[in-house]
Design brief:
Shape: elongated
Number of strands: 18
CATH class of the largest domain: Alpha Beta
CATH superfamily of the largest domain: Histidine kinase-like ATPase, C-terminal domain
Number of domains: 5
Radius of gyration: 38 Å
Largest sheet: 6 strands, antiparallel
Length: 577
């Protein structure tokens, strides 16, 4: 009964730990998602402001055109219309209109729908000698427009008229419509006037309202949740909008609007769930192995107690008679056979314990591909946002390669548990080292480590497993970088020696090896207690992998730093079976 309570307590502890990991991972993922969303929102706002500024500058430039100095005759107005039409065609403006002080249309690129625009907000602002702007919807076509009106000054500095440029908002939206995140711009009246999701156009926000309401005024599903400093919206506004999204805003006083973005938080939820599941799986696996080892030790202890009792009883009977002595010898032989069998079971228990120690390094072995996948996914999203599909496809291909690599690593771990391993074959040693450098490149660049590696001009083929051999060099490179973390100058040299014996040296300029005798023992590490840099398994695992290839690995102190040498067998065709 006591063991049942212990097991239940352990499972509850693992559940609490997994919940804590999920909560922390979710908040960290939201923080990274918020940084990316903020950058995307600023990019979209800058893009819109820049495109609208083109029409603003066009109005200022054309307001002083000589063609508008005198518009008294029909010929002069016709020439002015030709100028406006030519500029409108070249700049994709919907219309360009020149107005006098009374708001009368003197010339326009398109046939004027109204001859007097004195009550236009942009024109009223231009009469005051400043740049006027306004937005609205054309009654005839329903198109959304943005208008700029620049004052035209006379010789004495008085305002003689204004040049108005009308831009089609839909043409501006075409450059960023369909982006991954839903971006929309709300005007001062609380109306969504510009968006890359047409479903949101003309939705409203009343005073004090957090969400949005459709133009029809009907109620829609909406809820706002605060997670730390992040505001999350739960909506059901259509298949092109996320149901649970991170909401960010950015004020744009230049165009008198507020930019807002909705970013799907599903990736953050998946990442947090994966982290929690990984931690729970590792803890449960370790607990199961520890429980089995404890049960076997208890069984062995009971067997030893019983054996000692029998030996004492038979020893006492030796004094009785020679017959009893022979019987005691026979029983002792049987007891020794049982002890031998128990010792063999103890060896097997030791193997299972070693497997449990190895399983503790799962996160260590999968962390680098996971970080690479996330980096490539972020890069791919950025490239898609910029319209660089080829670069995005390249990042997706690399994500697929990383996923395949993770699958091979998990396959190798499963094979180890079954006393199996990946079949050894012909391995391009140069490509293996290139792959290991690629996986550690980001970390080396972040730590300021200089990597000196000149690959041979031709392939060098070794006998081994590609994935496991790559794991060895990744461990060696990371250990070298860790050793130099506290010094200003950091350099790693990698060199292949392919003369009579095939070997690879990895040399750093760190403080060297403290204890070479314990270097390859499991859980031996020189890092501080509680450090997340490692668990002391890397070199032990590397040692076992190289031994399985028929090679050897050794580490010695150099001046300065340490040098690790990996000796391997050349690949020979007659070894293929």
């Amino acid at each position: 009964m006591q063991r049942v309570w212990v097991v239940l307590g352990f499972v509850l502890s693992v559940a609490l730990l997994a919940a804590g990991v999920w909560s922390y991972g979710y908040r960290q993922a939201l923080l990274q998602l918020s940084d990316k969303a903020e950058a995307d929102l600023e990019l979209a706002a800058d893009r819109l402001s820049t495109q609208m500024q083109v029409y603003q500058e066009l109005a200022v430039l054309m307001a002083t055109h000589p063609a508008f100095d005198t518009l008294e005759t029909e010929a002069q107005r016709r020439e002015a219309r030709f100028v406006l039409l030519d500029v409108a065609d070249k700049t994709a403006a919907v219309d360009m209109i020149y107005l006098d002080r009374d708001g009368q249309v003197l010339a326009s690129a398109q046939p004027a729908a109204q001859t007097n625009m004195a009550d236009h907000p942009a024109f009223e602002r231009a009469l005051q000698g400043a740049m006027g702007s306004a937005h609205g919807v054309l009654d005839a076509t329903g198109d959304r427009i943005y208008s700029y009106a620049a004052p035209a000054f006379g010789p004495e500095g008085q305002v003689d008229g204004a040049l108005m440029v009308i831009a089609d908002v839909q043409d501006v939206e075409q450059t960023w419509r369909g982006s991954t995140e839903a971006v929309f711009f709300v005007d001062a009246e609380g109306v969504v006037f510009i968006s890359n999701r047409s479903d949101l156009l003309f939705w409203r926000r009343d005073d004090g309202q957090l969400g949005l309401s459709p133009p029809t005024g009907e109620s829609v599903a909406f809820a706002s949740v605060q997670v730390g400093q992040h505001e999350l919206w739960e909506v059901d506004w259509g298949r092109y909008l996320p149901q649970r999204a991170l909401h960010l805003t950015l004020d744009l006083p230049v165009i008198d609007m507020t930019a807002e973005v909705l970013v799907d938080v599903a990736p953050a939820l998946r990442l947090a769930g994966l982290q929690a599941a990984t931690v729970a799986a590792i803890c449960l696996a370790f607990g199961a192995l520890l429980y089995l080892a404890t049960e076997r030790r208890r069984t062995l202890a009971l067997a030893n107690v019983e054996l000692e009792s029998r030996v004492a009883q038979r020893t006492h009977e030796l004094t009785d008679a020679n017959t009893a002595l022979r019987r005691e010898v026979h029983e002792r032989q049987e007891a020794e056979t049982a002890l031998k069998h128990a010792q063999e079971e103890l060896v097997q228990a030791g193997k299972l314990s070693a497997l449990g120690q190895m399983s503790a390094g799962i996160s260590h072995e999968l962390n680098q591909p996971l970080m690479a996948i996330r980096q490539f996914a972020d890069n791919g999203t950025a490239f898609l946002t910029r319209g660089r599909e080829e670069k995005a496809a390249e990042n997706l291909t690399r994500i697929s390669d990383m996923a395949a690599r993770m699958a091979r690593i998990i396959k190798n771990l499963r094979a180890f548990a079954r006393n199996e391993s990946e079949p050894m074959s012909k391995v391009d040693l140069v490509q293996v080292i290139e792959t290991a450098i690629e996986l550690t490149e980001a970390r080396l660049r972040a730590d300021g480590v200089v990597l000196d590696w000149t690959p041979p001009v031709r392939p060098v083929f070794a006998w081994g497993g590609e994935v496991r051999l790559g794991q060895v060099f990744v461990n060696l490179i990371n250990n070298a970088a860790d050793a130099m973390s506290q010094q200003p100058e950091r350099r790693i040299d990698i060199e292949i020696h392919d003369d009579e014996k095939l070997s690879v040296t990895v040399r750093d300029i760190g403080p060297g090896i403290e204890n070479t005798e314990k270097l390859f023992e499991p859980f031996y590490t020189t890092k501080e207690v509680g450090s997340s840099e490692g668990m002391g398994l890397g070199l032990s695992i590397s040692y076992g992998l190289v031994q399985s290839f028929g090679g050897n690995i050794r580490g010695v102190n150099s001046n300065p730093g340490a040098t690790f040498t990996v000796e391997l067998e050349y690949f020979r065709e007659d070894e293929v079976v």
